[in-house]
Amino acid sequence: MNLHLFEKFILISLDQKKGKFLIDSFSLNYALAGAILLELSELNKISIKKKKIFLTDKKYTRNNIIDANIRLINKSKKDRTPKYWVYKIGNRSSGFKKIILNDLCSMKILKMQIRSFLWGIIKIKRYPAMNTNEISQIKDKIRQVVLKKDKPDLEVVLLLSLMESCKLTRFLFIDKKEYREAKKRIKELVKDIEIGEAVSQTLKEIQAALVVATTSTFVSTSSS
């Protein structure tokens, strides 16, 4: 099944059995924003010039997420930095996340379950795996690249970078030795693989935005 980068990211962000996300919503939303921008970059929809993102291809693709973000960037009265778009898209990621989850349910990769609490007053949606093979293939490919030194493609490198940015790596590499190896290997891969300027710059901005978001969350939690 040919999935988009942001769909694969959502799948590896979920607990397959419980159907809930493994990381906090702040980190998830900004990392998802990064995945969307990286997808646009892979599709040659955006480029970077003088540290600003601009659209190079405004044609729609019939994918709701991609087209919504093409419209969003196109509406801007001036070119903006990758950091600006990480925040802008990140603040809208809750809506994008729902669309992606619904699409993955339509593909029968996930299934939606509604759980009720407090006599049905509170209802929470969960998305456990329906097609575990599809998700396992994504995770196995990532693990092979990290632990078996398989030759990576760009998408695996981008997924690993996103995972490391939002602290997802520890959930795929639970063993301490594997986790240390994964962190080391990710740095090597990002450094060695040929990545275009737009993708490279976007990756850096995602890292910066996530540091700020995580710090803000920690500070506000501590204050309260």
Annotate the secondary structure layout.
Elements: H1 5-13, H2 25-42, E1 46-49, E2 52-55, H3 64-75, H4 82-90, H5 93-106, E3 113-117, E4 122-126, H6 132-147, H7 154-165, H8 169-172, H9 176-192, H10 197-223
Antiparallel strand pairs: 1-2, 3-4
Q: Please tell me how large the radius of gyration is.
A: 18 Å
Number of helices: 10
- Give me the strand/helix succession: HHEEHHHEEHHHHH
Mean pLDDT: 86
Strand order of the largest sheet: 1-2
**Which range does the strand content fall in?**
5-15%
- Category from helices, strands and their pairing: mainly alpha
Ends distance: 45 Å
| Count of extended strands | 4
CATH superfamily: yeast vps74-n-term truncation variant domain like
Give the tally of structural domains: 1
Question: Do you know the CATH architecture?
Answer: Orthogonal Bundle
Low-pLDDT residue intervals, each spanning 5 or more residues: 217-224
The CATH C-level name is Mainly Alpha
Fraction of residues in helix: 55-70%
Which geometry do the CA atoms define?
Answer: globular
Largest sheet: 2 strands, antiparallel
CATH topology: yeast vps74-n-term truncation variant fold
Task: Tell me briefly what this model is.
With 224 residues, this protein is mostly helical. It contains ten helices and four strands, in the order ααββαααββααααα.
